[in-house]
Design goal:
alpha+beta, Alpha-lytic protease prodomain-like, Alpha-Beta Plaits, four-stranded mixed beta sheet, disordered C terminus
Length: about 325
């Protein structure tokens, strides 16, 4: 007997789409302006900060895309809708960011050894533009950031961007006042060092989702222990947990119960209790429980078993 409850997934941050879209537009504009400024001034620090901005453009875009795609209905060919599009986009962005961060670090070391001349005036102008845009984005996000993980994360990203813009301004001021061009390389290395760990962490998280790894917040041993404490439960096996998207963990389990449960009406109450436990203790809203009598174990098909016919053919 297989049982599963459908769960309507709320659209993440549906009421915050417009502010997120505005902030995304501002951040993307700053990114383009800083790349242009890096070309005109020859500043690696501006280019590094643009790479740092790229991480935030990625994060904001994913938050917005997740909010839009999550609202699209599932179909017969895409039973989870487009929820995993967020993960695929994040993986692509993470790879791009690692490339950008690696280039910034390599070029930063090179410029630290042989510093080229940098136009500090242009660097200051574009640094001020970047800082101004970040301040406006912070003001917009401060109105919606409480209580929503997507927008709170976006706020932290934009604050980090503002700090990067301040670092660019400090480097420009040092160059203008002292002529020490290595300040541009030093700031570039600092910003590059901020990009790499974040990009690496993002890539690891996306690979975990794509490989259907157990979500970090779900301890399967603890889940098994909770389910075994439910009355009438004798065993739990084929327990699996994975994530369809970053905010959609799913869990399946085969639960062996007393034979009497199939005759005295216990199963519906057991199912409700188990799914309430999974949602309340482990934040898993979507779970599928298959109930089995004790004698069913002998009929289970396990992929780790070798088919006897296949075994004989291998020996022949």
């Amino acid at each position: 007997m297989s049982s599963g409850h459908g769960h309507e997934q709320a659209v993440p941050g549906a009421g915050h789409r417009r502010p997120l879209a505005i902030v995304l537009g501002i951040t993307t504009t700053i990114l383009v302006v800083e790349v242009l400024g890096a070309v005109l001034s020859g500043s690696l620090a501006l280019l590094a900060d643009a790479g740092h901005m790229l991480t935030d453009v990625a994060g904001l875009a994913l938050a917005l895309v997740a909010a839009v795609l999550a609202g699209r209905p599932a179909t017969e060919t895409r039973t989870w809708g487009y929820r995993r599009a967020e993960t695929l986009a994040a993986a692509a962005q993470a790879i791009l960011l690692l490339v950008v961060g690696g280039f910034v670090l390599f070029e930063g070391v090179k410029r630290l050894i042989e510093p080229p001349e940098v136009a500090s005036g242009a660097m200051l102008v574009f640094g001020v533009v970047g800082l101004f845009g970040n301040v406006v984005a912070i003001m917009l996000l401060s109105r919606i950031s409480s209580g929503n993980l997507n927008t709170r994360a976006a706020m932290l990203e934009v604050v980090n961007d503002a700090l990067g813009s301040v670092a660019v301004l400090v480097a420009a001021a040092v160059i203008a006042l002292t002529g020490w061009y290595r300040a541009d390389a030093v700031v570039s290395l600092l910003i590059g060092a901020m990009i790499m760990p974040r990009a690496g962490k993002l890539l690891c998280e996306t690979v975990d989702v794509l490989m259907e790894a157990t979500p970090e917040h779900v301890d399967l041993a603890d889940v098994r222990a909770h389910l075994l404490r439910v009355p009438h439960v004798r065993d739990v096996h084929d327990l699996h947990a994975s994530s369809i998207a970053s905010d959609l963990p799913v869990l399946t389990a085969h639960v062996v119960v007393e034979d009497s449960c199939f005759h005295d009406g216990h199963l519906p109450r057991l199912l409700d209790r188990m799914q309430q436990c999974l949602a309340g203790h482990f934040d898993v809203e979507h779970s599928t429980i298959q109930f089995e009598p004790a004698g069913h174990a002998g009929h289970e098909h396990h992929t780790t078993h070798v088919c006897p016919l296949r075994r004989r053919s291998l020996k022949a």
